[in-house]
Amino acid sequence: MFKSKLLAILMLSSSVGLAFGDSFQVTGSAGTTLKVEEISVFHEPWAMTFLPDARMLVTEKSGKMLLVSANGKDQTQVWGLPEVDYGGQGGMGDVVLHPEFSENRLVYFSYVEKGKGKTRGAVVSRAQLIEQDGNASLQNIETIWEQFPKVTGRGHYSHRIVFGPDGKLFITSGDRQKLDPAQDFDSALGKLIRLNDDGSLPDDNPFQDKGELAKTFWSIGHRNLLGIAFDQDGHLWQTEMGPRNGDELNLNLKAANYGWPVVSEGSHYSGLPIPSHDTRPEFETPKAYWVPSIAPSGLVIYRGDVFPDWNGDAFIGGLASQALIRVDLNGDSASEAERFSWDARIREVEQGSDAALYEVDDGGGGRLLRLTQQ
Questions:
Q1: Vertex 209, ends 206 and 214: CA angle to 5°?
Q2: Mean pLDDT score of the chain
Q3: Reported pTM
Q4: φ, ψ dihedrals at 214, nearest 5°
Q5: How far from 83 is each of 91, 93, 113, 127, 235, CA to CA, in Å?
Q6: pLDDT value of residue 20
Q7: Do 195 and 201 form a contact (C-beta atoms < 8 A)?
Q8: Which of 154, 191, 270, 302 has the greatest number of beta carbons closer than 10 A?
């Protein structure tokens, strides 16, 4: 049944000119040419991560996780996932490995679950990835974080996850399009969360005197954080969707307040202006921002030998911009260096085990692409 579904997806991709296994070239705004290889196809892929043996775990928003061979040809459904609330921006989300995955087989994943009435919220769980007799499943599932409060609406969950160099788990928690809770210490909306790997509280989190919930916060005043990554110096960077324009790349600092919804480099969708960051110096200012919007999604900071000149650069997947955006990071400064555009919304970008860049397109028939130097 699963193989027939994959065949149907491949036939659909071929019908719109995205032949499975093809490659093409794309030249960036600074004149760099990349070779882009199509190596697999998914339905609404949202995130991916690489196993030590170069295989991948890929999530699909409708509620699936797939174990994918290194060459992309074989997909095995991972069983045992909890039921997800699928709709709008919600569904299955991110997936990362525990830093000691080779020993403990622990996988961390995020998704959206229903609450009471018409409410819903993001969840992060962990489980062991077990492979036996050609099958793959998640076992011993533990919920380690729930977005509080659950609210109505189907947007701005964020729920990206990353492990820091110190082994702590960081979770992005969007404002759920409710705005003001991003400044509220009694709400986890619009925050960056930091936990131990078992979901317990680190005693060095910054907001120890703001209530029990606030003890989970690392930073506040965020909108919709859809990309998060550490650089080689241990600095944490995150992308954030602005309202109407004003998308941000932030250097994330302990105890910092990034100002949403009080300040922004964009405006409300109604057209009403929002004061810019420079009017309120108590708020952290983005290191780079975009007007018009790029709609930033996944984020990776490159370190490898396939693109030696780009070591330390950030790569951002763009949805509305339909582009992969390379950003030069220099200490605590950032600036767009090059933009690679093709006719696809880019949902996620990661560095592979082979040091190539990989990205997945958004939506039905979303391609997994491998990027190398031409």
A1: 65
A2: 94
A3: 0.94
A4: -65, -20
A5: 9, 12, 7, 15, 35
A6: 54
A7: yes
A8: 191
Q: Supply the pLDDT for residue 27.
A: 97
d(CA 100, CA 109): 16
Is residue 159 annotated as a catalytic residue, yes or no?
no
Question: What is d(CA 308, CA 192) in angstroms, rounded to the nearest whole number?
Answer: 31
112 token code pair: 């959206």
CA pair distance 60, 58, nearest whole angstrom:
7
Could you say which DSSP state residue 196 is in? -
Determine how β-strand 92-97 pairs with β-strand 45-50. unpaired
Predicted pLDDT of residue 374: 86
Query: In the numeric block, which tokens belong to residue 286?
Result: 């983005």
81 versus 13: which is more confidently predicted? 81
Q: Tokens for 217?
A: 């916060």
Q: Which among 156, 159, 222, 277 is annotated as catalytic?
A: 156
pLDDT over 50 (residue 11): no
Task: State the Cα–Cα distance between residues 93 and 338, nearest whole angstrom.
Answer: 28
Residue 4: pLDDT band (50, 70, 90) is very low
Q: Look up residue 343 and give its DSSP letter.
A: S
pLDDT reading at 23 higher than 60: yes
pLDDT tens digits, one per residue of 142-162: 999 999 999 999 999 999 999
Distance CA 295, CA 280 (A): 24
Of 143, 147, 144, give the one whose Cα is nearest residue 181: 147
The residue type at 51: L
Asked if 240 and 223 touch (Cβ cutoff 8 Å), the reply is: yes
What pLDDT, on the 0 to 100 scale, is given for residue 324?
A: 98
What would the two tokens of residue 5 be?
């579904």
Rounded-to-integer distance, Cα 365 and Cα 343, Å: 13
Report the C-alpha gap between 310 and 101 in whole angstroms: 28
153 neighbors 179 (Cβ within 8 angstroms):
no
Q: Which residue has the tokens 């933009």?
A: 339
Q: Domains along the chain?
A: 41-334 (2.120.10.30)
